[in-house]
Design brief:
Blueprint (H helix, E strand, L loop, with lengths): L1 E3 L5 H9 L11 E3 L2 H14 L17 H9 L7 H8 L3 H7 L1 H8 L8 E4 L8 E5 L5 E5 L6 E4 H18 L4 H23 L3 H6 L2 E2 H8 L5 H16 L2 H8 E4 L2 E4 L6 E3 H4 L3 H19 L3 H7 L3 E8 L10 E7 L6 E8 L17 H12 L8 E5 L8 E7 L14 H20 L4 H8 L4 H29 L10
Helix pairs in contact: 2-18, 4-5, 5-7, 7-8, 7-17, 7-19, 8-17, 8-18, 8-19
Length: about 500
Amino acid sequence: MSSRETDSGAGGVVELAAKGRRVKPAPRVVPHLSVAERAARGRAARAEVPRSSHARFEPAAHRPDPVELLELQAASRVPELVPIRYGRMLVSPFTFYRGAALLMASDLAATPHSGLRVQLCGDAHLSNFGVFASPDRRLVFDLNDFDETLPGPWEWDVKRLAVSFEVAGRENGYSAKQRRAIVLATVAGYRRAMREFAAMRALDVWYARVEIDELLAQLGAQIKKRVAKRAGQTLAKARTRDSMTAFSKLTEMVDGEPRIVSDPPLIERLGDVAPGPEGVAMEESLHDLLRRYRESLQTDRRVLLEEFRMVDVARKVVGVGSVGTRAWILLMLGRDEHDPLFLQFKEAQPSVLEEFTAKSKYANHGQRVVAGQHLMQASSDIFLGWLRVENGLDGQQRDFYGRQLKDWKGSFETEGALPESAAIYGQVCGWTLARAHARSGDRIAIAAYLGSGDAFDRAIAEYADTYADQNERDYAALKAAVDTGRLTAATGM
């Protein structure tokens, strides 16, 4: 075993401390195990935590009330928007699952894990993968939501992904055999990819990514004409989702200047959310906030952002689980009205994983999200950055991360999808998640733990089936809470 560290010498540290100068903490020691040692680590973990142990899920004797957990989350959110969140979660057990990351994190904390840690997405369900434009303008596929990112056991992301396919499969009316085949394909995609990454050079792992055109060419004959046609439509639609499209849909001309169109309560301009002097004061402070956000960007992106001026700002409801957190869109213009840029600033609250792992090392949760995204994604938005608002509309300090609102974004449409296409999509998601984990965790140890057989795949398929039952019970509990008047849900939004 060898290690690498920087040591300025104990005598030097003591001398500096004696002079009253600030002493920096000693650099972290990074161990460098051999390939054989790393593989042995994974096999030892397998002996201690058998792969078959991951199949089990039994609700804890004192499992928290799922509705109470959702109510606790709502306490930090915009009160008038919380009913929209409940309404969206009630659309189906799958939309409920999308909004129930906290509930599953609570359950996952009691499940076996190998002790091998990675940077987690924290909410790796199938709808949090998708296509978007890379900085070099290629259409790539990757994870695209990192609100809950935090270091933790790699199995947690795999289980959340696998369960999402089981839940979506039930919603689509797939048979139990078809659902199991899809989940097995997804987990096998992860396992095989991790073995590939374990054999790669570190730089090759870092450069690996899924480019859509190459992926479709590789799949070739595996894709039926109907599936290929639907994929083509999704990709064509994604390429139209950029700032120009958002500009045409979200704005109107007012006195010769573009303005965001209000659509309460989903889109509300700042003047409507905070009328009068309060809104005026906040709009004036936005220029200072933009400068602070700009400081979090790479130097070249700072220069690019300076080409744009702020024109308008509005609060926008986004997602399912995120509804109720503060999200703002800023309309920026470059050389003229034909050169728009929409930035989205989304509130970053503590990860739902913090209670069950450890607190983030970042003081700013926006920075936590950005750092996790850079670590897990092969290509990130050029305007990905963060800021802190010291005194928001409610007088509270809040963290945000910023990025482009739309840049060739598209996602897999689960409704009506064929089982064969769901299985292929699951394999791609599994590969992508493995690549993300391989960048931060010990890919050789994880691959050794997984092994070459399908023991882990089968265990996770069983877990997914059992946990999907729990998800349906929790969904029913939310529905009952609304039916009895305990909670209020707004539908059709």
